[in-house]
Amino acid sequence: MTWEKNYQEWKNFETLDKALNQELSKLSETQLQDAFGSDLSFGTAGMRGVLGPGTNRMNIYTVRQATEGLAQLILDKGQDAVQAGVAIAYDSRHMSYEFAFEAARVLGFHGIKAYVYESLRPTPVLSFAVRHLKAFAGIMITASHNPAEYNGYKVYGSDGGQMVPEDADVLTKYIRQIASPLTVKVADQSRLVDQGLLEILGDDLDQAYLEAIQSVTINPNLIKNHADMVNIVYTPLHGTGLYLGMKALKQAGFKQIHVVEEQAQGNGDFPTVKSPNPEEVSAFDLAQKLGQDVGADILLATDPDADRLGAMIPLDDGEFQILTGNQIAVLMADYILKALQEKASLAPNGRLVKSIVSTDLVDAIAADYGIETKSVLTGFKYIAEQIKQYETSGDHEFIMGFEESYGYLIKPFVRDKDAIQALLLLAEMVVYHKKAGRTLPQVLENIYQKYGYFQEVTVSKVFEGQAGKDQMAEIMSHIRQTPVNTIAGIEVTDKYDYLNQIHVDGQGQESSLTEPKSDALKYCLADGSWLAFRPSGTEPKIKLYYGIKAGDRQSLAQKAKEISQAIDHLVAV
To answer: CA–CA distance from 56 to each of 23, 45, 48, 59, 539 (Å)?
Structure first.
């Protein structure tokens, strides 16, 4: 169907939501083409898009359509799945509350029970709720750290992890069978409550989560005896992290917690930041001011749905240095392994799990403790999948999982990245090092001196619209077809093509990969460096990653420059 026909169908729909109808009349032809020229894609990370009318926008109708697909999948699974129901949570973004209850109304129309939180909650708490309630699935309404005009819809499986590709593909087929999002039927909300098909979740589940999170703390006595010596600044960036983040910290024994009050309450406009993204220094502007006032030992920020955590650490001159997601993971892994060893609690079959585009420095640290590291495809669902395998086989004990994009998980009672857990663990780590007279910059430098200097860089190239999608596909095809034996003069020892599931070693010998198909490429170099390419699963961009290893900072900087130039040449189409 053309964009014009899609538009006319919506324009002529007599009961179209009034607010959407008013917005529809204000759109230019170019905007209409984008809003109606395609359907909002539903991938392995669910769907995410700009709010507004249209088939390529986030609105009550596209949310209904996605939920109708989920409902049909559940119905086909049988009565046990129907009775297990679906847990639903939502963040502070515009329309999150409305989308959550629209999803519940669609499920209820089919006799499927929905458990919906009474107010906004973090994404990891939704993952916890799915497991705690033994629900068949979960829905999280969030657009993570995207700008204010976005919202999104993520689906979780019964294990509390995001749906893996094969399950998401099945769900996508159900969604595509729905002729029009405008025709999806919904039940009356109050009637669903009366029928027991809509249950509102509240503090009982929060308390269960807070009880579980106590297991994240490795050394409770350390916190009990020395927490007062540490000043923590925390900002939830107008999102969902405040209530449970503060509860978790205070429950553990932390008292010197200073909240950035201007950013404490949920607000979908995110009025004090350009972007509610804890990866960016600008998101910490207010936290830095407060940190200097109180003499903070660390600044911590969670994104709107509190699954990602960023940090800044104080330098000798009173300024603060932002940490990369990889550096946070390095500090975490170093502390966890050291603290567990000191307690004689480090399992010999323990394993850390990370994405293929995350730092190899953690591998070196773990190996020093006799612990293995497993690399999986990008997406925390693959880390959750490993946890499930370890529980089934008993071969390994999960110690920690992380992605370079500021996502961490310490204890697997949640099966997605959990910034509340990370908040608690980092606070404990600061106490440990301050008690020993070490600053975090010193700790990081000591790690580099022991294991080598590592630097990881992520570069995003944006490609808007359908033309952008075509260009991204062309670039990935070009890279695959280009023989690459050296990069910046360094020999390529291994090439991994996860779409074609092929591994090619330095001698040109091919072998098959066992990982699921994914549009990603990775090259490993003879000096321990690497680079990778993949289109984003949620945004119109190709992400270029490279990790560099060198013996000193000067060599590291030179190598980074040379590899960056080589990458620019490789992606030039």
So the answer is: 15, 16, 10, 9, 13
* Residue that terminates a domain, selected from 170, 204, 238: 204
Distance CA 518, CA 447 (A): 33
Question: What is the rounded distance in angstroms from the CA atom of residue 36 to the CA atom of residue 181?
Answer: 12
Q: Is the pLDDT of residue 556 over 70?
A: yes
Catalytic annotation present for 144 = yes
Report CA 548 to chain centroid distance, whole Å. Answer: 24
pLDDT tens across 43-53, in order?
Answer: 767 899 999 99
What pLDDT does 44 receive? 67
| CA 502/CA 508 separation, integer angstroms | 11
Closest of 433, 367, 354, 363 to residue 400, by C-alpha = 354
Tens digit of pLDDT for each residue in 447-462?
999 999 999 998 888 8
Q: What is the pLDDT of residues 498-520, one digit of tens each?
A: 999 999 998 889 999 998 888 99
Please indicate, yes or no, whether residues 477 and 551 belong to a single structural domain of this protein. yes
Q: Tally the domains of the chain.
A: 4
- Could you tell me the CATH number of the domain that includes residue 508? 3.30.310
Say yes or no: 46 and 192 in one domain: yes
Please indicate, yes or no, whether residues 121 and 166 belong to a single structural domain of this protein: yes
Q: Give 466's pLDDT tier (boundaries 50, 70, 90).
A: low
CA-CA distances (angstroms) from residue 514 to 165, 239, 305, 326? 14, 38, 32, 26
What would the 3-class secondary structure string for 289-354 be?
Answer: HHHHHHCCCEEEEECCCCCEEEEEEECCCCCEEECCHHHHHHHHHHHHHHHHHHCCCCCCCEEEEE
> Tokens 């169907």 map to which residue?
1
CB-based contacts of 36: which residues, under 8 Å, 6+ apart? 3, 4, 6, 7, 10, 54, 55, 56
pLDDT band at 164 (very low <50, low <70, confident <90, very high): confident
- Residue 198 three-state SS: strand
Q: What is the pTM of this model?
A: 0.95
Tally the C-alpha atoms within 13 A of residue 389's C-alpha that lie toward its C-beta: 11
Residue ranges making up the domain that contains 280:
228-322
| Helix runs in 277-317, H state only | 285-294
Are the beta carbons of 162 and 381 closer than 8 angstroms? yes
Give me the amino acid identity at 539. E
In this structure, the answer to whether residues 188 and 42 fall within a common structural domain is: yes
Residue 434 lies in a domain: no
Do 338 and 281 lie in one domain? The reply is no
Bridge partners (DSSP) of residue 58 are 51
Assign residue 233 the CATH number of its domain: 3.40.120.10
Do 312 and 458 fall into the same domain?
no
- Does residue 310 lie within any of the structural domains? yes
Same domain, 176 and 131: yes
Query: Comparing C-alpha atoms, which of 277, 327, 285 is closest to residue 457?
Result: 327
In a domain, 541, yes or no: yes
Q: Which of 92, 127, 144, 405 is the catalytic position? A: 144
Pair (236, 149) in one structural domain: no
Confidence bin at 567 (pLDDT 50/70/90): confident
Determine the number of helices (DSSP H) and then strands (DSSP E) in the chain: 20, 23
| Separation of alpha carbons 432 and 422, rounded Å | 15
